[in-house]
Structures are given as structure tokens and as C-alpha cells.
Target: Aspartic proteinase
Amino acid sequence: MTQMRIVSLVFLMDSFQSLPSLLLLLLTTTSLLVQPSFSTPHQSLNTKLGFRVGATRVDYGKNLTKLQLVQRSLHRGRARLEMFTKMATTASGNNIQAPIFPGSGEFLMNMSIGTPSVPMSAILDTGSDLIWTQCMPCTKCFDQPTPVFDTTKSSTCSNVSCTSDFCQDMNVFKCMDGCKYLYSYGDESSTEGFMAQDTFTFEDSGSGPVSIPNIGFGCGVNNQGTGFGQGSGLVGLGRGPLSLVSQLGLGKFSYCLTSISENKTSNVLFGALADLNYSTSGASHRTPLVQNPFQPSFYYVSLEGITIGETLLPMPKSTMKLKEDGSGGMIIDSGTTLTYLQEEAFRALKMEFKSQMKLRVSESSDTIGLDLCFDLPTEDLSEITVPKLKLHFEGVDLELPPENYMISDPSMGVVCLAMAASSRMSILGNIQQQNLLVLHDLEKETVSFIPTQCDQL
Model:
């Protein structure tokens, strides 16, 4: 059995902070402000260019242990997991009158809206599409850290008509004196308002502010719920037509999440900058994106097996396969903290970790909130070994560093597996994505996992 020796069990976890900058230059090269003009939300931008945006965890800067950070994120993410599961369960049903979205998330990105610009701090969500923020007049709004946006004070803001491409999904939008929308989330949070277009400005750490006009977004005037963290709205990065990715028309985006225990900024990168010149080496890290017609906004991948140490878990490839009815399969999600595996796969993984860890299973697992924890010895932590964990995706084997799947808290005397069971679908969570450049190539329909020191980008 192959194992890795860990000199210290004070594992670090990636603090997701990422987000792109923006693109599209005018003919001038001296201006830091990029303002391309295009008439429809689907017009492609200049893919020779790229930009990056910083992102931070919702709990960024708080004096918490790694385990405490994970526990807080688990509490926030329960409704998200439940909604993912419900969506997978009812994907092919005919009784759903209106869609409900996962909502919530773990990372915030800062940007500005309008002319003059008004700051906005928004939840980054790869599991949904709509971009939205709270707007005046706010009949029902939650507290937010930035001013509520007033469309009447922006010289570049305009309402979206019912005939716009932004207003075509009749499950979400209604034509009532303009394009109105209602988005409901799994934790009973919701946003209701009207669709608008305006200039969004992003602060690129490399080149300065980048502005892009005519971004379609929801102006929420009736918003409720506790799932929006410290943000004033949400930015969807899903595969649907309303997402920021689709509106920019760039073809590529990536993110690189720093350790959860480090107060460092992550990055989201768009356009040509997204692959950071990894276009050649990235080929060996690439797996196809899988399309689920029932959930077209999600980024599905094909997980074919898992190896612990040198043991390939005894489960057929069909265990993790996307089913014809839209259930099953695995999605990549930035807003879910743990990785969730379908129950049969998780049972096999849990049993193998118990066999190979050579530590006593802790009785504190239930109170901690994680499914499998081990008691640390009182002395000589340096001699503890952790078995390797390798995920076998179609076309690529991804071996994770131990800090991406084990969480240690010496003060509590435990080390825990950062994975859990799910009844209907699997999710590759953000802890497992730490210090990986996760590159989405939407033109080639692939995802690449490239080991990267994310705080040094």
C-alpha cells in the first residue's frame, strides 16, 4: 500500500478568492479603461485579450481555525446541496411550474455598476446564471455592505424590453410593463425585480479598471433570505445565456482558489488569460465537459473511479455516470465546500480510509459535522501517514495533495475527511479544488485541472 508521509498535520485549505478582470480593448493602448461596444449579449469579445478579477471567501479575514471555517461553510451549504439533489431528482418531471436555483456560495467578487460607478460586492456562483443586485426603490431588501444601486442616477443604464434576448425564459421572466423576473433559491431566499442593462467595471490587478457596457442584470427590489453572505447580489458563471461568461462571449474562463486557511485573494480569469499559457501542458490535464439536457447550466464531468493508496475502489463506472433522466453524474461547483459522492461510492471510500489511516475513528464526528474523523495521537504527529487520493476522470487522473481532502485541528485532537455522501448526484467541492487552476474551455467543451500556486498568480 502506497502512502505519503505528512511532516505536519496542520493542513492548509484553499481560500477561494478568484475572479476575472475583463476584456475588450479599444484601439488605444494607453487607456486603462476598456470599453468595447456590442449590441447583443452574445457578441464575442476579442479572445486575444483577457482579464482577471480577485475573489475572497465569505469568511475572509476572520480569526477562525480551518475546521471552524469548514463548519461555517457546511452550515451555509446544506440548503445548496439539498437543492442540487432536488433538481437532480425532479429533472425529468413535468410538474415543476417554476425553476428553483441552488443560490448561496462561498466567494465574493468586487465590481462596480453604472456611470458614475457604484461599488457592488457579489456572490460568485458557478451553479446559476443570473447576475443581479439590489436596486432602488427597495420595497424589501436585506442589509448589504455597499450602497443600493439607483438606476435613475446612472447615465448608461436602460431597462430591458420584453423582446430582448435577456427576457426569453418564461419560467423566470414575465412581460409586465417591461421585463420582470423572479429567481428563487433552495434556502427559501429569492430576488424579484426588473431586468436592466448597464456598464460593469472590474478591477484588474494587472492592468487597472476594465469596463464593459450593456451587461444584462436583474435589479432586485423585493429580495429576501440569509444565503447571500456579505454580498449585495450574485454573479452567475453557469453555462446559460444570462451568465457573465456567456454575455462576455469569451470561450474560456478559469479560477484558482487559494487555501481556505490563508487570508489570500483567489483569482478568476477570463478570455485568453484564463489558461495562463498552459495551453500545451494543459492537454494532459483535460477532461470533457458532459452536457445534461435537464440541467444545462451546470458543469458536469465524468468521474470513472477513485484510488485510495494503491487500491482502486470496487465500484462500476456506472456508479458515477450521468443517467438518462438527468440524475447522477458529477458537477464542478465553486460554491460547495466539501466533495459529495453518491452513497455507494462514498461507502467504499470511507471503508478504505478507515483501513489505511491506522488511526482510531473519532466519536466526535457527528458533533463536528463531518462524516469521518480520526483521533490524533497525543504525541509524534509527524509520523502520521495519509493515503494518496486519486480521482480518475475521463482522460485524466487527478492526484490531490492531502490538504485538499484532510482537515486537521490539533486543538480538538482530530483529523477529518473533507468528503461526504449524497443521495442523487456528486459534487466536486472547492476544498478539493485548492491550488488548482480550473480551466473551463467552453469552445472545446473541456475542463482542465492544472496544479498551480494560486497565491502567486
Summary: Confidence is low (pLDDT under 50) at residues 1-47, 92-98, 279-283.
